[in-house]
Specification:
Length: 443
C-alpha cells in the first residue's frame, strides 16, 4: 500500500518502463472487452448476460477482472477490488467517462463501479469521435434545432440512459450511490444567476432522481451552489483545487440545506470534487524550477498531502451542533470525491491518486487508465488519514519553499475552466460544420 510516508520520491521508485508489470501473473487473465465495432482476435471467447469476457495474456490495457468459467459454457464475474473498496472501506468507485452506447457501462457495473461522472471534455471526445450520435443528430438538425440545443439533446439522452442503468444502485443505497453527473455550460463559470438557471433547467430536462448537476467551484458560482441546493437539487461541485475553496463549497452546501425550508433533507445530496493529479503537475514544475534537493524530493507529494488535509477538514465541518441539527432533518454529508485520478507523469505509480486516498464516505472517480490499474493491482486499505501529521508537514514544507497554495488553486481553476470552455466551443463548432454538410447534402 502506498502512503504519503512511503512516497519519498515516486520518480525515483518507479519508471514508465516497469509499469507494474512485475506484479502481473504469467497465468492467463480474464479481460472485459469494452471496445465496440472492432474486429479483434482472441484465444478463447465466451459471454454471459451482456458481458463479453476474453482470455489473452498478451493483451495489455484491457480492463482486467477476476473471473471463472461455469460448466464450460458461461462465466461468472467474481469480486474485484472495486467491490472490496466499497464494502470494506466505504469508498465508492465511480467511472469518469461516458459515451454511446451507454450499455458499455454494464461490465463496469458488474465489476463494481457505482456511479459515473462526465464533463464537457468527455462529451467533446465522445460525440466528435463516434458515429453513434449520427442518427439523433440528423433528426435534430432536420427538425431545425440550433446547434447548442442539439448538443444538450445529445448529452441529456446519454445522461438519462446512464441514470437508468444505475437506478437500482441508487434505490438499494437509498440515494447514497448510483449517480450520474452532468455539467452546466462552462461558459457560465463566472455567471452566478446564469448558473442557477442552467442548473434548474438541466435538472428538469434530465428528470432523473439520481442525476447530479455539476457546478464549478469558481467564486461567482459559490452562491449558485447554495441557491441550487436550497431548491432541492443535488449537486456535484467540480474543479476544487484548494483547501480554502473547498471550505467555501462545504459552507455553501450547509447554507443551502438550511435555506431550503424542507422538512426532509434526505434526497438533497452532494459531492465535492477535489482534483488531485493536476496539483502535482503544476507544483512539480515549480519544484523543478527551484531545483534544490529538498524541492526535488517533494515532487509527487503535494496533491495527496493536500487531499489528506481536505479529508481532515471534511471530518471537522461535518460534525458539531450545526451539522447535527441538519442530520435531524435527514441531511447527508457532502462526500469528498477525488477527481483527476489518472497519473499525468508516467514515472509515477499508476495508482498514485487512488491507493493513498481511500477512506469512508468518499468517492473516487477514475478514468480508464486509473480504473484498470486499480482493478489489476490496487490495494484496499484505509489510507487517507493514516498519517495526517506527515501530510501537514509536506504542506508546510512546500509553503516554506515558496509554493503559494492560493496561486496553485487559482491557476488550476483558470486552466480547468478554460479547458472545458475550449472543449465545449470546439464541439459546437464541429457540430455546426457537420450540420452545414447535412444541409448541403439535403439540398
Amino acid at each position: 500500500m502506498a502512503t504519503i510516508s512511503k512516497l519519498s520520491n515516486p520518480a525515483l521508485n518507479y519508471s514508465s518502463s516497469t509499469s507494474f508489470t512485475t506484479r502481473s501473473s504469467s497465468a492467463p487473465k480474464c479481460f472485459l472487452d469494452l471496445r465496440t465495432n472492432k474486429t479483434t482476435t482472441f484465444d478463447h471467447k465466451f459471454s454471459a448476460s451482456k458481458l463479453s469476457l476474453v482470455f489473452n495474456p498478451s493483451i495489455r490495457g484491457s480492463l482486467c477482472v477476476k473471473c471463472s468459467q461455469a460448466d464450460g459454457n458461461g462465466s461468472t464475474v467474481k469480486r474485484t477490488t472495486l467491490h472490496d473498496l466499497y464494502e470494506r472501506q466505504g469508498q465508492s468507485p465511480w467511472y469518469d467517462n461516458l459515451c454511446r452506447p451507454v450499455t458499455d457501462l454494464l461490465p463496469l457495473i458488474e465489476s463494481g463501479v457505482r456511479g459515473v461522472t462526465s464533463n464537457p471534455a468527455i462529451f467533446q471526445k465522445a460525440i466528435s469521435t463516434s458515429n453513434a450520435y449520427n442518427e439523433q443528430f440528423r433528426e435534430l438538425v432536420q427538425a431545425g434545432k440550433d446547434i447548442e440545443s442539439v448538443y444538450w439533446e445529445l448529452v441529456v439522452k446519454d445522461i438519462q440512459d446512464a441514470c437508468k442503468l444505475f437506478e437500482s444502485i441508487y434505490d438499494k443505497t437509498d440515494g447514497g450511490d448510483g449517480y450520474v453527473s452532468v455539467e452546466v455550460s462552462p461558459r457560465l463559470a463566472e455567471d452566478t444567476e446564469g448558473t442557477v438557471e442552467a442548473a434548474k433547467w438541466l435538472h428538469k430536462k434530465v428528470e432523473r432522481s439520481n442525476v447530479y448537476i455539476k457546478i464549478p467551484a469558481t467564486a461567482p458560482c459559490i452562491p449558485s451552489i447554495k441557491e441550487v441546493i436550497s431548491l432541492g437539487i443535488s449537486v456535484n461541485v467540480t474543479l476544487i483545487f484548494s483547501l480554502a475553496r473547498y471550505e467555501a463549497v462545504i459552507d455553501a452546501y450547509l447554507d443551502g440545506l438550511e435555506a431550503s425550508g424542507l422538512s426532509d433533507l434526505s434526497r438533497v445530496t452532494s459531492v465535492a470534487s477535489f482534483f488531485v493529479s493536476r496539483v502535482d503537475t503544476l507544483v512539480d514544475k515549480m519544484l523543478e524550477k527551484i531545483g534544490t534537493p529538498e524541492a526535488l524530493d517533494l515532487r509527487g507529494k503535494a496533491a495527496n498531502a493536500q487531499a489528506a488535509l481536505a479529508y481532515k477538514l471534511y471530518q471537522k465541518k461535518f460534525s458539531g451542533p450545526r451539522w447535527e441539527a441538519l442530520v435531524k432533518k435527514g441531511a447527508k454529508k457532502q462526500r469528498l470525491l477525488w477527481a483527476s485520478t489518472s497519473v499525468k507523469n508516467p514515472a509515477y505509480p499508476d495508482t498514485l491518486y487512488v491507493d493513498p486516498l481511500i477512506g469512508p464516505d468518499t468517492v473516487s472517480t477514475m478514468p480508464d487508465q486509473a480504473l484498470q490499474a486499480f482493478i489489476d493491482h490496487g490495494s484496499v486499505a484505509r489510507t487517507i488519514d493514516s498519517n495526517v501529521s506527515e501530510a501537514e508537514g509536506i504542506y508546510s514544507a512546500l509553503e516554506k519553499l515558496g509554493i503559494d497554495w492560493s496561486f496553485v488553486g487559482s491557476q488550476l481553476e483558470l486552466e480547468g475552466v478554460d479547458s472545458f470552455k475550449k472543449s465545449f466551443d470546439s464541439l459546437l463548432d464541429s457540430l455546426q460544420e457537420k450540420a452545414n454538410t447535412l444541409k448541403l447534402v439535403s439540398l
